Amino acid sequence: MNLLIRHGRVIDPANALDAGADVLILDGVVSQVGPGLPAPVGTPTVDAGGRVVAPGFLDIHVHLREPGYEYKETVATGTRAAAAGGFTGIACMANTNPANDTRAVTDLILARARVEGAVRVYPIGAVTRGLGGAELAELGELAEAGCVAYSDDGRPVMNSALLRRALEYAQAFGKPIVSHAEDAHLADGGVMHEGIVATELGLRGIPATAEEILVARDIALAELTGQRIHIAHVSTAAALRLLRDAKARGVPVTGEVTPHHLVLTDDALRTYDPNAKIAPPLRPKRDVEACREALADGTLDAIATDHAPHALADKEVELDQAANGIVGLETAIPLCLTHLVGERVLDLPTLIARLTVGPARVLDLPGGRLTPGAPGDVTILDLDREHRVDPGRFYSKGRNTPFGGWVCRGTAWMTVVGGRVVMANGIVTVP
Amino acid sequence: MGLKRKDLLEIRTLEPAEIQTILDTAASMKEIAGREIKKVPALRGKTVVNLFLEPSTRTRTSFEIAGKWLSADVVNVSGASSSVMKGETLLDTAKNLEAMSPDCVVIRHVASGAPHILARALRCSIINAGDGMHEHPTQALLDLLTIREKRGHLEGLSVAIVGDIAHSRVARSNIWGMRKMGMTVRVAGPPTLIPAGVEELGVKVSHRLEDAIRDVDVIMMLRLQQERMTANYIPSLREYARLYGLTLDKLRGARADVLIMHPGPVNRGVELAPEVADGPYSVILEQVANGVAVRMALLYLLLGGRSAEVAA
Amino acid sequence: MTVREKAQVLDEQGIERALTRIAHEILERVGGTDGLALVGIRTRGVSLAQRIAERLRAIDGAKVPVGALDITLYRDDLGLKAEAPVLRATEIPFPVSGLTVVLVDDVLYTGRTIRAALDAVMDLGRPRMIQLAVLIDRGHRELPIRPDYVGKNLPTARREIVQVLLHEHDGQDRVVIQEPGA
């Protein structure tokens, strides 16, 4: 597909670009970026009208729920949600049913994506069989099938010896392991952050230490094996201290953070709202501030939503019984623009870096930049557009978000995948 | 002047003046228990549903008597708490009940926050009869009434609450209630059973029973919540009873006129020696009597005015 | 609601005399203080009952038991007011069965308070007889209730308010008619 995007403010952190320019995509691939580009006759043209034109955003932590939990989300609905939210590529986790621990499941996901996917889908395979934490999955086969990384996300790999073997074994395939760093024993039974709010609400808490302990362990194993570990959804100041220190020492470790951990504190649980129940839990202010700092200074490489759709029945129960997770694809950009850039935590190019080149580097994904030859994926932002979060209008099947009704300033205006417009003005258009 | 609210979910958000109103009203209602015909027509025609999804004979009976003495129609619904086991969610159960137009639902549930779910979803009044580890407001109110009766006032008195504070909704409600009424509160127990950040609620923490009970006006012993504990909070019942159980011997270090309280049921020989539970300092039975009065007062204050629907 | 005083209908002496006369009338009609009890309806009825009991003692020498009745739980308008009315305690520390109970209230108006008081007393036992003494009867009955002893009959308009002030509660002894408005 060909597409010419005119008159945009092109911000491409990978190429240190922030200037008025046009972007020309030919045959689904970036051809040229520069002012006043000529295009072949008949090339579809989009006038960005001064809006921000960035490499297509990547979300490397999404739960598509298919196979097995199609009542919560499918590849079709999840990728539409991604397109609506301004994402051109997503990496999907392995905690499906059956788990993505064999090529059969990877093939299924990729087949669905080919036929029904609105954006690019990069499957993440399981580290252990059935996510049981006991036996290695066939990492080689998973890599051959197209998995870009391995993760038991949803659960930690508690057995350190097993994780070490996994890291060593995965070396042959060059794919990183993504770690859900939460000590299962310390976290057992907890539904929110352990602190004064949990005490007042009479809810069992998960101490920050549950994250700190496994992050320390993961960093040590990355050091021991020399293999890459990426820490999913970091949420505590303690873990960030360890991450910063490890990076300074040259340990191959990276980290991501979710928008909700950058915006909400554990006070969000005060109304016992099951839509605020997540793992890792929302933390107190000082941890939120530490996450913001770490995102700004690069200790955290990427923003990833941990998009976790659930059906109403899974959430509208007593807090102890409610499923963990928030949908994030369709709220990420408005929230980040309003509360990170708008509150001067990050400047816009840094935010864009954390959504493009940052995640691309973590998982070695094509894209995240507008270099000629890169995939023709573009996200165009409207920084002034006021946007009220309305879960009733989500493309995702999941409506579980604590941000319903929030008013934000700034949204994704257009999503382009391989030169084809898949979202314009909030409407997803996929054949 | 009733309570300007639809529900009684927690002490934490009550004003001291509201607590005062509830206690005064309860005190006025006590004489009904002494009558031969224990009935007044105040809530005639009102329906109160006791939705007890966590086992409790004592509290449920207390609410039932309270409703019946006020001439309300009381319906008891009990069952397993886990909505997963029942197959029907709490919300579904409640909406089904609402279709039968109750004026009030009294709920006890194993999950903290369950009454809040009902209060948001139902139009009728909701009274929290104990939710998980969160609060047990009527217990704290009857405790305050008992202390006020015995001592004549509340402000300036000191209380030691001893036991499994971390998992106790009675402790939480009492801490809120007592602090609001100007009392000093100490909590004592094994460090593993003291919840994170509890000092921020304005209480002093002690790990020794003997220190905690010295010079206080009231000692409140909590039931060791066996059913709520997962492993390894304490090494054994034996050690707990030895260190934190209240015996006559340990009482020697307390004031001569100290009041001993317990929300019941008592684990005799664990947190309270039988001689103490049955002894002269104990006001445990008064607590039970006051429980009916407090629950009558609440039903009257919440339902004795125009229903929320009509008033809206 | 602001009210203004329109007229005074009884001064301190007037109240004295009325209560004394009522005490004599009770003795006469009931035939002595045996088996007699006074139950004042909260709040001012209680003070009036105590004053009548003092006079009975002065005249007859006997101590007539006095109880205090709160009729809030028996009101027929519970559930019509926005909030539950303030509840005070009922203190009748003697059994009422078999006694002649004289209810005492300050103002008799629609009769609904007395109807509630009758129900309340009947819930406590079975008196031999119940009679009613009021300081002021202002008319406008809505139920078939009539007083046995009246301090003063006072025709009033519905919009008027009859306020009995007693030194036990209000620091002065007077009965006044008030009208809403400045």
Output the helix-strand order of chain C: EHEHEEHEEEHE
Low-confidence stretches of chain B: none
Biggest β-sheet strands, sense, barrel of chain C: 5 strands, parallel
**Mind describing the biggest β-sheet of chain B?**
5 strands, parallel
Q: How confident overall, as mean pLDDT of chain C? A: 94
Order of adjacent strands in the largest pleated sheet of chain C: 3-2-4-5-6
Rounded average pLDDT of chain B: 90
Largest interface, and how many residues on either side? A-B, 23 and 30 residues
Which term fits the overall shape of chain C?
globular
Number of strands of chain B: 9
The spatial strand order of the largest sheet of chain B comes to 7-6-5-8-9
Counting DSSP H or I runs of 4 or more residues, the number of helices of chain B is 13
**Quaternary structure classification:** heterotrimer
Helix content percent band of chain C: 25-40%
- What percent of residues of chain B are in strands? 5-15%
Number of strands of chain C: 8
What does this structure look like?
The complex is a heterotrimer of chains A (431), B (312) and C (182). Chain A has 431 residues and is an alpha/beta fold. Chain A is built from 14 helices and 19 strands. In chain A, the strands form three sheets. In chain A, strands 1, 2, 3, 4, 5, 16, 17, 18 and 19 form a nine-stranded mixed beta sheet that branches. The model of chain A has no long low-confidence stretch (mean pLDDT 96). Chain B contains 13 helices and nine strands. In chain B, helix 2 crosses helix 12. In chain C, the strands form two sheets. In chain C, strands 3-2-4-5-6 form a five-stranded parallel beta sheet. The longest helix of chain C is centred in the first third of the chain and has 19 residues.
